[in-house]
Amino acid sequence: MDLHLVTYFVAVVDHGGITKAAQSLYISQPSLSQAVRTLEKRLGVTLFDRTGRRLELTEAGRKLDVAARRILADVDRAKAKVDAVRELRAGRVDVVTYAAFSVDPVVNIVRLFRERFPRLSVRVVSADSPAGVLSALRSGDAEVGIMDSAAEHATFTAIPMAEQELVVAAPAALADGLPDPMPHSAVRSLPLVIDHSDPITASLLDGLLDDDGKNVVVDCQLPSAVWSLVKKGTGATVLPGTVADRQLAGLRRLALDPPLTRPWGLVLRSGLPSPAALAFISAAKVHCGIAPDPAEPRDW
């Protein structure tokens, strides 16, 4: 059933006839009469009793009147919700990432996003690897992914953002006498507590591991557990400098020589991003000091 036919029908009921209804709809009387006849033909019923001067609803017409008003109310509510999202008055963006980026840059981007767009919300989904990020995007469980820019992203749209500088964080007992900056070869003698499950990260850290990676004493995918183990003296770890400064402030922070960086970016499904996703992209660019595109929303 065409929505405009439903609208025309309700207008005729409300105005008690074709003439006034046509005037309110700014269409001709013949056009409105034809629309009502078309609706009756499609439904296979007579909607109006035309024997008197004023059109009266038949039993079928009264049933349609109830349903038609419900349809129009539902449409109005749906339009209001769409408008609210488009105008950033409501909505949610679903973001997926994995352990390597779960603190840096996710925390600061989400903080900026909420400061700039306080009426929008964020749902952060956990994946186990770059492949898991792409799988969540492909299935529709998330709209924006945060992952290593060096990882294969297939047909997805990638937006390079920035680089993490990785450093060594070690308890005093292990860090005593270590040079700063620290050559990669020197790290191989340290017991490490790291997440070695992601192939991209494992490849990046390969030069810091001894033969067969035997200096990896704990392989852990949980950042908070890694930090606790390092604080307890179980081993050193390799993590972004910004995370080391916040989460392991009491430990020695050693730069690497040569520097070790990990590029990251956003990955999107094909098609036009939602307004909330565009707002998240805008916040990510602000976090990285990148000028936003004109099409991206500004602060609310």
From TrEMBL:
Pfam families named in the record: HTH_1, LysR_substrate
Transcription recorded as keyword: yes
CDD domains: PBP2_LTTR_substrate (cd05466)
SUPFAM superfamilies: Periplasmic binding protein-like II, Winged helix' DNA-binding domain
InterPro entries referenced in this protein's UniProt entry, alphabetically: LysR_HTH_N, LysR_subst-bd, WH-like_DNA-bd_sf, WH_DNA-bd_sf
Residues annotated as signal peptide: none
Cited PROSITE patterns: HTH_LYSR
GO molecular function, one term: transcription cis-regulatory region binding
HTH lysR-type domain residues: 1-58
Keyword terms, alphabetized: DNA-binding, Transcription, Transcription regulation
Transcription regulation listed as a keyword: yes
Record-linked PANTHER family: HTH-TYPE TRANSCRIPTIONAL REGULATOR, HTH-TYPE TRANSCRIPTIONAL REGULATOR GLTR
Family: Belongs to the LysR transcriptional regulatory family.
Protein known as: LysR family transcriptional regulator
Organism of provenance: Gordonia lacunae
